[in-house]
From TrEMBL:
Lineage: Bacteria, Bacillati, Actinomycetota, Actinomycetes, Kitasatosporales
Similarity comment: family membership: Belongs to the ABC transporter superfamily.
Keywords for the protein's UniProt record, in alphabetical order: Amino-acid transport, ATP-binding, Nucleotide-binding, Transport
Domain ABC transporter: 7-245
Originating species: Streptomyces smaragdinus
Residues included from the entire protein: 60 to 305 of 329
GO BP annotation list: L-amino acid transport
Stated name of the protein: Vitamin B12 import ATP-binding protein BtuD
Recorded superkingdom: Bacteria
Gene: btuD_10
GO molecular function: ATP binding; ATP hydrolysis activity; branched-chain amino acid transmembrane transporter activity
Length: 246
């Protein structure tokens, strides 16, 4: 490959007790790329994110085989806080913001523990406000009063405060109106253009393939298709099952 593989998932097998959720999954996110994971309900998309962020244990799951490396370093043996310290930050599905805390305090919480001290935290906040001006306008309001789309912006902004190298985005368009979903997609493009790699989990295949350079399709825990975004957009299987083309 031309570029160093930022994230490499190899032969990953994951279970929750007797439930086998992933089996032999291979996936690569080259440095600086956006790669999408497509698939229907229960395919294993969220499980894959949890395996990378090492939060699987909180949900009763465990890695049974394979490996996850980032920049050549094994992540699958690190605790979740060390994964974050390595620059890999997950934005969970359902945009869990701290509803009673102000928008400003939510963002501040995202910067806690980030390297670089106060000056880089101020620079990160400036970048987040440039990306999402509404978060500056609403800085003093409780996060719970924001609209769904604004809460997704806040969840993204909070993750950016730590200066991540790789963002794990779980269904960022879920429950959003098409226009707002497109604004979030645009923000993901911009975040990527500024140098952050992205692993994007989406049921909205059209949106994901508009942002990602490559994608894999998961079905019942296995990768059934993978390729560039252009290849997948041209695949009959993807067009029929995930893009709604008849
Ligand atoms: P969705 O979009 O519906 O969240 P998904 O593709 O993210 O789907 P997962 O949530 O990763 O799929 O689920 C993969 C499989 O693992 C499913 O069979 C699901 O029932 C099972 N599973 C997920 N979480 C748990 C859990 N905490 N305990 C037991 N089984 C689980």
């Amino acid at each position: 490959p031309m570029t160093a593989a930022a994230l490499q998932v190899s032969e990953l097998t994951v279970g929750y007790g007797p439930v086998q959720a992933l089996e032999g999954v291979d996936l690569e996110v080259p440095e600086g790329a956006v790669v999408a994971v497509l698939g229907g309900n229960g395919a294993g998309k969220t499980t894959l994110m949890r395996a990378v962020s090492r939060t699987l244990g909180f949900h009763g799951g465990a890695i049974r085989g394979g490996s996850v490396t980032f920049g050549g370093r094994r992540l699958d043996r690190l605790p979740p806080d060390k994964v974050v310290a390595a620059g890999v930050v997950q934005v969970p599905e359902g945009r869990r913001v701290f509803a009673r805390m102000t928008v400003a305090d939510n963002l501040r919480a995202g910067g806690l523990g980030a390297r670089g001290g106060r000056r880089s935290a101020a620079a990160a906040l400036t970048r987040v406000h440039e990306l999402f001006p509404v978060l500056r306008e609403r800085a003093g309001q409780p996060a719970g009063l924001l609209s769904g789309g604004e809460q997704q912006m806040l969840a993204l902004g909070r993750a950016l405060m730590g200066g991540p190298r790789l963002l794990l985005l779980d269904e960022p368009s879920l429950g959003l109106a098409p226009l707002m979903a497109e604004r979030i997609a645009e923000a993901v493009r911009e975040i990527n253009a500024q140098g952050t790699s992205v692993l994007l989990v989406e049921q909205n295949a059209a949106l994901a393939l508009g942002v990602a350079v490559a994608a894999v399709v998961l079905e019942v825990g296995r990768v059934t298709l993978s390729g560039t975004a252009a290849e997948l957009k041209g695949s009959d299987e993807v067009r029929h099952r995930y893009l709604g083309v008849v």
